[in-house]
Amino acid sequence: MPREVAVLAAIAFAVAVGFGVVAPALPVFARDFGVGHTAAAAVISAFALMRFVSAPLAGRLVDRIGERTVMLAGIFFVAASSAVAGLAQSYLQLLLLRAVGGVGSAMFTVSAVSLLLRVVDADRRGRANGLFQAGFLIGGLMGPVAGGLLTELSPRLPFFVYGATLAVAGTIGALALARTTLHERLGRQDDEANRTSLREALRHRAYQAALVSNFGTGWALFGVRSSLIPLFVVEGLKVGAIWTGVGFLAGSVAQALSLVSAGKVADQAGRRPAMILGGSVAFAAMVVVTVSSTLPTYLLAMGLFGVGAAFLGVAPGAVIGDIMRGRGGQVVAVFQMSSDLGAIAGPLVAGVLVDNLSFGSAFGATAAILVFGPLLALRMPETRYARQAEPVDDPSGPDEPTLGGRARPEESGGGQT
């Protein structure tokens, strides 16, 4: 596995830790300015909204100036805005600075994923994506614990810690990735001629399936799970809030333990079966919690969903790398936007359904969203060998070419490519 994968996973870990550190402090800090709960929540929404709307810009920047430059700029963008947010003297300042941070987050995410997909060949892309996702997952588990302790001391302190963490991660990334050689060193004319356009990608059934799967993941994992499960545990199951944490932990552990297997399945069996399996398991988890409102079935559903989320976090991203030629900033940006859109829309729709119908209806709607992913995956072609051999300078060693994608042996005459 190229060393760049480990570097990107470490950066993802640092970003997730920092984000988790700030999460408990954000609403508390906002409330210190005398605003209501809605205004406090708007600070969180501003970050997510700006991350969503600025993703296309991040994609264009990646296509124009390269993944590494955009990624490091995004990291330092978030680091600076977070540190300054800790010095905010008004609610408006805090709101604007968090919005600026959302722009930097989009720059980091789009460029990091694009870079990750280009430094590994097709046979290792699923496992590389799994390691990258593991960095986010483990960091996301550790961050809130530290954030809660720091918030007890001062709600401003987590912002400074977040800024410092990102500054260190960005510096390490700048040094470790300095020698990476990718397609952007080719001539501009050749690069543009061989680049996969967004229009071309949107016509690909595999890309369509990846977008729908990622939308469902954002809706269920980043949206409904975070916003609805805490209320369901207390109001629906009538148990203590501690069981929210237990359920989240069960899902996270199941997801972490399944990431390696998910990567292997995606690389060895193919992206298509991995997406079908992941989407089906996630769908089954939502069906379980829809039809049965008991504590054991809730815990079972959370564990099942963690397994499904592992496959859905690995396989669709590998598909993007398979169909992408050259810099794929806009292709990756739209892929990321599909998840963000789900995370924004999911809680809103689920909240309306709970207010007017029931928790079961909200979970049922989530299951209905999730089922479209595996259904579209059924009609997609396998993409693991979608591209013919494409020379890429090896970023991890000698200046000999490696393969950005590998042709089927029978398509390449059976010889070694």
UniProtKB/TrEMBL annotation:
It is found in: Cell membrane. Its main location: membrane. SUPFAM superfamilies: MFS general substrate transporter (SSF103473). Residues 4-385 form the Major facilitator superfamily (MFS) profile domain. It is a multi-pass membrane protein. Keywords: Membrane, Transmembrane, Transmembrane helix, Transport. Pfam families: MFS_1. Residues 386-417 are annotated as: Disordered. The chain crosses the membrane at residues 35-58, 70-89, 95-119, 131-151, 157-178, 209-234, 240-262, 274-292, 298-319, 331-353, 359-378. GO terms for molecular function: transmembrane transporter activity. InterPro entries: MFS (IPR011701), MFS_dom (IPR020846), MFS_trans_sf (IPR036259), MFS_Vesicular_Transporter (IPR050930), Sugar_transporter_CS (IPR005829), Tet-R_TetA/multi-R_MdtG-like (IPR001958). GO terms for cellular component: plasma membrane. It comes from the Bacteria. Belongs to the major facilitator superfamily. TCR/Tet family. This is Predicted arabinose efflux permease, MFS family. It comes from Actinopolymorpha cephalotaxi.
